[in-house]
Amino acid sequence: MCNVCGCGGSQIEGHSHEHHDHSHDEHHHHEHPHQHDNHKNAVADAPQSIVIHHHYHHQGDVHHHVHYTLPASIMPQQSTDGHHHEHENDHAHSHDHSHEQHHADHHHHESHQPEHLDKGDLHYGKGEAEVHVAGVSQRQLLTLEMDILGNNNHLAAHNREHFIENRQLVLNLVSSPGSGKTTLLTETLMKLKDQCVCAVIEGDQQTSNDADRIRATAVPAIQVNTGKGCHLDAQMIHDAYHQLAINEPGFLFIENVGNLVCPASFDLGEASKVAILSVTEGEDKPLKYPNMFAAADLMIINKVDLLPYVDINIEDCIANARKVNPTIQVIKLSAKTGEGMDAWFNWLNENRQQL
Fold this sequence. Notes:
Largest sheet: 8 strands, mixed
CATH architecture of the domain at 144-353: 3-Layer(aba) Sandwich
Helix content: 25-40%
Order of helices and strands: EHHHEHEHEHEEHHEHEH
CATH superfamily of the domain at 144-353: P-loop containing nucleotide triphosphate hydrolases
Strand order of the largest sheet: 1-4-3-5-2-6-7-8
CATH topology of the domain at 144-353: Rossmann fold
Distance between the termini: 31 Å
């Protein structure tokens, strides 16, 4: 979860909060959770002590700040050496005692962690939340995660309503960096663009390089730069989608940030996640990043033209993916040579016909 990774600082290309041609009927409007003008905490009525935050800062005319806070009452106050200190709120900035004297009077415990935490809470990746933040219990982290994802999922459901209403097959393309997502996408668009309307939302930390490559195919694309962010979320897709202002039936491809961790947890309103794995990455990737492959409906094994030059067992790779997701579909292809691309186009058209 991104409640400990410090992600934030996104910018949507050309975005301004005027929402031209963004009309909702009365039923839609009251359910449209605009957070653009309010700073909503995921934990209701939490004090001002910010422990963890997602800070989506759309530069330019619009600024989105979404802070997730934990109550100050659950946070132990610590010095830089990790020792627990009790400080009154009206503690003066000028101290009448030295730091050494304060420590001499301080009762040290064998463990400097808060007493209310179980030992199992102190290990990274352990416990219910599967993440560790010093001084915060697994139960509190789990509650925070549920609040963050609940807020995202509410807006994702709203995005999905738009996509279904406009009969658009929306696919969330996810992979590690260098898997060949953009090359696969450009080759896909070159064939599909003459059959129906296509559009792309591109996610990267910096640059518009990939969006420029998409626009070179004459398909509209908008770049979302996430800055320190490691994934796209439903709010970013909402804003970018309305910036594109495409309402005709067709395909909307979302090329997520190259990352096999956080994008697995964030619903964007898509019909399916498509995990793209290149043969250069090894057959154990689905086992190393099980959440992503469990969330995907389709795994594309890309760059099969390199099979003579790399050490990978394709069948083992597929078996590993099905250990974490028994129903995942698999297509083997090369975006460069065109091998296997027909199977990919068949999958796209079959899923679009189900809209």
